[in-house]
Design goal:
The structure is a single chain. By secondary structure, this protein is mostly helical. The chain is built from nine helices and no strands.
Length: 298
């Protein structure tokens, strides 16, 4: 059974990685044809590349540590975690409409041997990312744009539904559980109790997680978005393109497919290539260490 699960895991990884690579070539062609050939020569290329590289390390380092904080209780080997994080982030960067999140849930559910944990970890990570993003989008929409964008509405509704769900579960769990136990006798009642108990377990885990790490998760989220903005600002300066708060808001809308985003393809292509290199290096180093260990044991 375990062998079949590992085989399925490897096949799923190959399918998603091949699909992501296919999108990488497509985005690369668009980035080159639409941007790099029409904006002129790069300004200060060496300095720009160095600064972009540093921003890349800092923003993904912050996001990696944020996600690791969520999974810390699972005692997942940190080196293994880094490999899976890089792989899933590479896929998530390239697949449209953030569909790569499903791959991330699957991979971390497999690594932790817990489907519930794979789902919770990704949801909590996304919620913190979204909350910090809304701290920028809401003031911008009200004070600068003069209207609420579709992206802000959708993200706000997602956060609101999650918060209301947690509040409802916290306030109603005892009553619902007692009511179902006393008045329910059918198989349907047992299923409802099972679902209710699973939701309660998820809530308890998230509550325990936020109690000690809320501020750290928020700080890492802020660092990630700040350096993503700086990364884009440096890229825009290199191509002699104006990039400010308005363009950043357009970039966010473009990520969710509701607008045209300046530098979106360029940023995704450069970041994905960086993640691809990091992924290949991590697997190469891991394979080399394993080979050395086997030779020592022999």
């Amino acid at each position: 059974m375990k062998k079949n699960e590992n085989t399925l895991y490897k096949i799923t990884n190959i399918v998603f990685l091949v699909a992501a690579t296919f999108f990488l070539f497509g985005i690369g062609r668009e980035a080159v044809s639409e941007g790099w050939q029409t904006t002129g020569d790069l300004k200060n290329p060496v300095l720009s590349v160095f600064l972009c590289f540093m921003c890349f390390l800092i923003l993904h380092g912050a996001k990696l540590l944020r996600f690791y904080l969520v999974l810390m209780e699972q005692r997942m080997n940190f080196k293994r975690f880094v490999k899976v994080y890089i792989k899933t982030t590479f896929v998530n960067f390239l697949l449209p409409f953030k569909s790569g999140e499903l791959f991330r849930i699957y991979c971390f559910a497999h690594e932790t041997k817990n489907v519930r944990m794979g789902f919770i970890s990704v949801i909590v990570d996304r919620i913190f990312d979204t909350c910090v993003l809304l701290l920028f989008l809401v003031p911008y929409d009200f004070c600068v744009a003069g209207r609420i964008s579709a992206v802000t509405v959708i993200l706000s509704l997602i956060v609101l539904v999650v918060l209301l769900g947690c509040i409802f579960l916290y306030s109603s769990y005892s009553y619902l559980n007692r009511f179902l136990v006393i008045h329910g006798t059918s198989k349907r009642t047992i299923r409802l109790l099972y679902i209710l108990e699973n939701f309660k377990m998820c809530y308890d885990y998230v509550a325990g997680l936020l109690k000690g790490r809320f501020l750290l998760l928020l700080i890492f989220s802020c660092i990630g978005w700040i350096f993503e903005f700086i990364f884009l600002k440096i890229m825009a300066g290199s191509f002699q393109i104006t990039f400010g708060v308005a363009q950043f808001a357009g970039y966010i809308s473009g990520i969710f497919g509701t607008g045209t985003a300046i530098l979106k393809n360029d940023y995704i292509f450069v970041s994905a290539v960086g993640l691809l290199v990091a992924m290949l290096l991590s697997y190469y180093c891991s394979g080399k260490c394993l080979k050395n260990r086997r030779s020592e044991n022999a």
